[in-house]
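Feature request, filed as a ticket because there's no other form

It would be nice if the structure record came with a short human-readable summary line next to the tokens. Right now we just get the raw output. Example of a typical job, pasted below so the devs can see what we mean:
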Amino acid sequence: MPLLLTIFIWVMFSVSLVWSVFVFLWFLSSIDKDTGAKPLVGIVTASLTSVGGIGAVAYLVMKYRERLDKEVELEHSRIAEADRKLKEAVGQLGSESPQVRLAGVYGLADVADNYLGRYKQRVVDILCGYLRTDRSELVVDGKFKDAAVESAIIKVIGERLRKNRVLVEDIEVVQTVGDEQLWCDCSFDFTGATFHETVSWERTLWDKAVVFTDTTFKSDVVFEMASFAGDARFDRVIFTGGAWFNWASFTAYAWFSGASFAGDFEFYGVRFAGVAVFDGVRFAGEARFVGARFAGNAWFEETTFFDGLNIENTVFEYAPETKKILLPNPNLLNVLNSEEWTMIEDKDYWTIDDHNKHWTLERQKERIENVYKDLEEALKDHPREKEKLKVIRETIGNNFPKVQVDFDSLDTEA
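Raw output as currently delivered:
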């Protein structure tokens, strides 16, 4: 409501109220017994006092409205400024110049840090969207021309996901931004993204769902001591380099179904509080789950271990679903004879069956070839890793027929 209209309304209201008070006091006043005169002076005094009081209230109301209007105007101005800066940063991120794109990344981070609220999630969505775009044309002669920009995005995200807290063995996470500037409460969607640079997101905290479905990591990725409070989806992810999840914790669902690990893979001391799904995962290197604990259901159906499975001190609180696991070289399963192998309820769920009734040798060969093709495609830009895969393939080829591992009936005494 306009300020002048507000003043007019209050003036009219004040006049009406004063007149009403005057009339009321006039008729209620008593007649002086000696003179017979009405106490008019008293009535006028009371009326004027009422006018003064009403005027003061009206003044306070108008000042409050004035201040409120200024606050609304400032908020609108602040939102307009934030939107303008956000638009400028997005425009920079779409530039052909890597220096301008780099400025856009930090411009977006600045918007989120200073304007907070909904702008944090908007900036996260924009940065995730950028990583999901096809940037294959920026790979020239084997060199990635967007390395500085991608590394900056990884750094910006990592800094805002490290919340001060104490982890295993009294390791403290160092927080470098204010509490309100943290992005831990944001949702992240990296579906189909390709990371060319090393991803160092150790000790990060993800309070909401994070999605890496169909993502490709062409270099190393580090999630050591990371905490996933929401669902974590790594299904069909291709890990070309090393993947380290040591001492990470998954509170909700952890999906790794269909993922491929072409390099080193470590899950030392990982804690799965919810369901952990590793169905159809292919490990080219040794899969190390040393000291891991599966508190919920664990699924390893049709999982392939090409270079060994290390599960010393691993604890499953429920029987894992492990049908049709393929381990080409039986000598790589010697850890199952370890005295430190732990299962809950004193039950053995593991068996090696040299004469598997469900999988023929031809079917195993076909599956191995399909897995190799996928891994070779993932390693096409990494000659040294591809050579290691070739050696593994030759070693396995020289030792066929292979052993089919069926974790539902393993006799560890054999």
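Something like this underneath would help us a lot:
The longest helix spans residues 40-93.
Residues 90 and 126 are 8 Å apart (CA to CA).
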